[in-house]
Write a structure and sequence with these properties.
Length: 121
């Protein structure tokens, strides 16, 4: 039986939801911090909510990179099904996500390939 290749990415990818669904792309949401509250990008916060916050608070949001453990859990969901993962994420110059994803892939040891998009989106 041949392995299925799964494309994964983080929520900075800016792909439209229809494209994500049509191509069965798995998206790992990054954490967005607005003041003292944290949200999962695309899960419990959207662009409109972020823009409204910035307009009202006059403060830019902050983000939190996904931890190595977070990537390991995300990747292991597919690896345990026997799938191979190609993961494309935010560029290493903008976030530590790429480094965390690479470390997680090395820890898993097989079937996870991390691609640095070298961009914000």
């Amino acid at each position: 039986m041949s392995k299925k290749i799964i494309i994964t990415t983080d929520s900075t990818c800016d792909l439209n939801p229809e494209y994500i669904q049509e191509n069965d792309i798995r998206v790992l949401p990054l954490t967005i911090n607005l003041g003292d509250k944290s949200y999962y990008d695309g899960v419990d916060i959207n662009s409109e909510m972020i823009f409204n916050y910035v307009k009202e608070a006059k403060v830019l949001p902050k983000t939190s990179a996904t931890s190595i453990d977070g990537y390991m859990s995300f990747f292991n969901e597919e690896v345990e099904k026997g799938n191979t993962i190609i993961h494309v994420n935010i560029g290493h110059k903008f976030s530590s996500c790429n480094q965390s994803a690479r470390i997680a892939a090395e820890e898993i040891g097989h079937d996870v390939y991390v691609v640095d998009s070298e961009n914000l989106s």
